Amino acid sequence: DRALRRLQVAAESGGALGFVFRGARAAANPSPAATRIQLRAGEGTSARILKCRGAHPPARPVPLRAATMRVG
After folding, report:
1. In whole angstroms, what is the distance from residue 10 CA to residue 16 CA?
2. Cα-based torsion angle of the residue sequence 50, 11, 23, 45 in order, rounded to the nearest 10 degrees
3. Cα-based distances in Å from 72 to 28, 34, 37, 68
4. Distance between CA 48 and CA 58 in Å, rounded?
5. Quick count: other Cβ atoms within 10 Å of Cβ 11?
6. Residue-by-residue DSSP string for 12-57
7. What's the gap between Cα 30 and its chain centre?
8. Which of 28, 41, 51, 63 is deepest in the core (most CB within 10 A)?
9. Taking the model in full, what pTM does it have?
10. Chain centroid, CA 46 distance in Å
11. Regarding predicted confidence, which is higher, 68 or 41?
């Protein structure tokens, strides 16, 4: 918790982004992060907004479409 808070303060005071990737078990733990997103990969890939500053997170996961890239 202390390390997460230090990262958050450093990112905000430095005007930078800071990302921490944690396992799914950490979703139930509190965090000082302004935004928390849980990604689920595979068929039906989605993002679930766990926490967002200034608004209520959506009740349902947001489906994500795979980006396609053409080479050549």
Report:
1. 8
2. 60
3. 45, 40, 34, 13
4. 8
5. 15
6. HHHT--------GGGGGS----SEEEEEE-STT-EEEEEEETTSPP
7. 13
8. 51
9. 0.68
10. 12
11. 41
CA 18 to chain centre: 11
Residue 60 parent element (H or E): none
Per the document, the length of the chain is: 72
Sign of CA dihedral 68, 39, 32, 9: negative
In the sheet that holds 62-63, the strands lie side by side as 35-40, 46-52, 62-63
CA dihedral 15, 17, 22, 28 (to 10 degrees): 60
- Find where tokens 């009740």 sit: 59
